[in-house]
Amino acid sequence: MISSNYFSDNDDLNLQIDQMIDWQETVGIYENDFEDAKKYKESGDEKLANAPSSLQEAVDSYKIIFESIGEIMGKTVAPKAKEMEAVGLKFDKGKVTFPPSMVECYNVFRDAGLQPYSISRKYGGLGLPAVTQAVAMEILARGDAAFAIAIGSVNLADTIERFGSAEMKQTWVPKMASGELVGAMALTEPNYGSDLPGVQTKAEQTPDGKWKLNGTKRFITLACGFNGAPAVILTLARTGNPTSGARGLSFFLVHGDDVQIAGIEKKLGLHCSPTCEVVYENTPALLIGQEGQGLIKYAMGMMNSARLSIAAQSMGIATAAYFEAKKYASERIQFGKPIDQIPAVRRMLDRMEREVTGMRCLTLEAARTVDMYVWRTERLEHSGLGEKEVRKDEHVRKWEKLASLFTPVSKYYTSEMCNVLASDAVQIYGGAGYTEDYDVARIFRDARITNIYEGTTQLQIVGAIGTVTAGMAANGHLRTYINDETQKFSQSAELKKVFAGFEEIVTVYKDLKNAGLKDTLAFEVVESAARYLVGMLMERSTAKLSGEAKQKRMNLCQAYHIDSQAILSGNILKLKLSDAKTAVPA
Ligand SMILES: Cc1cc2nc3c(=O)[nH]c(=O)nc-3n(C[C@H](O)[C@H](O)[C@H](O)COP(=O)(O)OP(=O)(O)OC[C@H]3O[C@@H](n4cnc5c(N)ncnc54)[C@H](O)[C@@H]3O)c2cc1C
After folding, report:
1. φ and ψ at residue 567, rounded to 5 degrees
2. 230 assigned to some structural domain
3. pLDDT value at 554 more than 70
4. Is 185's C-beta closer than 6 angstroms to any atom of ligand 1?
5. Exposure check for the chain: N or C terminus, fewer CB within 10 A?
6. Which of 249, 446, 456 should be mutated for ligand 1, with most atoms under 8 A from CB?
7. Is residue 479 part of a domain?
8. Per-residue confidence at 586, pLDDT binned at 50, 70, 90?
9. At which of 273, 292, 311 does a domain end?
């Protein structure tokens, strides 16, 4: 792996941070008039000592955090990623042992105080908004995806922060922030993966009002804890009868010492991330929030953050694929010249560059929608407003709709593209890419999970299709958002053509004569939405640039729009031909 600072060596990421993210908006909504800094002045509470008291201080502090993560990931972790993977995990009598070099790297990272990046300052975390969490995860995952998961796991505490009782927050969150406990999320069961409403792990209340769980969960990352630090396992379990569906599910906090780890999976990739089978036998559990809201509210809330985190993880893996391939292609000589001068190889590298740039724009925009929705909701709830009143707030309604569109779209798009780019990287390395001599084989293996876990691509499409089609109605949230955002720059003719294609496919889809085709062809519609949104966001990102930098980025945009026009034309044709072929004659 390239050895450098994985933040400062990434020009596009720096450009995003310096010129493209609207920090006024993000910091404004997250810091809430810099209330943590004010509390620090009043109380002297050391946990709030680093709270920013101005916009500039906030952005500077984020950059220091990115620099520090970039330094450790690029110079300490990435060089050891191959070795860690080769050693892998050991499982014996319910205990998992991690590679010694992974434990060393983990300790360096934790001791630097960088781990609890999404936990609030008052509980000992760094208190970063979603946009900055996404950047942190990108840098982490570029270094090593399995390591990134272990580090990021403690940030599941944000679910306890959002939905737990005051006592629960005080008891558990600080321990996660300090690394005494790690985090795990237990939803999947052997018979229920995508079909989460069917989950059957049983929760029963004893006469003294306490809860106990019985059942088995499968594929649970880090349920075994990390190197002696047990996990807090956030568990979805049934409080209703077996056929009560989603409304019969509740959410529980379980201590990792109270379950049995029956085994870990042997996997295609992520060899240093334990994927555990977890057995609950009269396991004590604490109810989070209200009964019956487990899947509908709490697990969905947690999964939405986790999906954004996978989009950022995909971003990081794709960035690693691109940078490693670019470096190799500049050094490998064939036919008397570096292979990056051969058009067929150049073509792959150019596509990787524009896709990585576009994916980053999309992921950061998805994070923006989450910031705009989540923190406002939290403030209103803390001000004493009831759930119904909060949901009437115009700002919350708008950004909630956009977050529920951007989260599945970004998770689907970046994870699929991450796979394409990881495959391109192997291709650019030729035969060497297929060996274990370089890191791209591991990158390729690790990429493959991103479009499966936290909801497969197919499930993201199911989640996105309704918000895309409804959103494009005359006053729909997506159309309004597009109108607002395209005011911020002068659109190119090519982008306008992609938009026209996107509008057409939505119309053709809504008018399908064979309604039975709607599920089958939803992918083409969501793909077209993603292509338009990525292209639009890439162009929007040129607004503040000038000169050569602007021209370079516009060139990327134009090449991206050409790809999009070809894809959208194909998609429109596919919808029309499929409908004509299967429509029942009148
Ligand atoms: C390495 C790893 C780590 C994981 N970590 C965790 C974790 O920490 N916590 C946790 O709870 N889970 C975890 N999972 C589980 C993961 O989230 C599930 O594997 C995933 O959601 C898919 O469920 P499944 O494997 O049961 O596949 P299935 O649900 O059986 O799906 C099989 C195929 O059918 C498709 N499909 C199913 N239903 C539909 C539908 N309605 N519409 C369209 N297509 C559909 C899917 O897209 C897929 O292609 C992990 C899995 C892995 C491999």
Report:
1. -65, -45
2. yes
3. yes
4. yes
5. C
6. 456
7. yes
8. low
9. 292
pLDDT at 583: 64
Ligand 1 pocket, residue 270 CB under 6 Å: yes
Closest CA to 532 of 486, 575, 466: 486
CB 529 within 8 A of CB 471: no
SS3 323: helix
Its domain, for residue 201, covers: 181-292
**How confident is the model at residue 388, as a pLDDT?**
86
Q: Which of 229, 262, 292 is the last residue of a domain?
A: 292
Q: How many helices (H) and strands (E) does the chain have?
A: 20, 11
Give the model's confidence band at 463: pLDDT under 50 very low, under 70 low, under 90 confident, else very high.
Answer: very high
Residue 56 in contact with ligand 1 by CB distance below 6 A:
no
The DSSP string of 403-472 is: HHHHHHHHHHHHHHHHHHHHHHHHHHHGGGGGSSSSSHHHHHHHHTTTTTSSS-HHHHHHHHHHHHHHHT
- The CATH number covering residue 474 comes to 1.20.120
Domain count, the chain: 2
Strand ranges (DSSP E) for 327-388?
333-334, 337-338
Residue 560, CB half-sphere, CA atoms under 13 Å: how many? 28
The answer to whether 412 and 457 have CB atoms below 8 angstroms apart is: yes
The pTM of this model reads 0.97
Q: Does residue 393 fall inside a structural domain? A: no
Summarised one tens digit per residue, pLDDT across range 132-174 is 999 999 999 999 999 999 999 999 999 999 999 999 999 999 9
CATH number at residue 213: 2.40.110.20
pLDDT above 80 (res 585): no
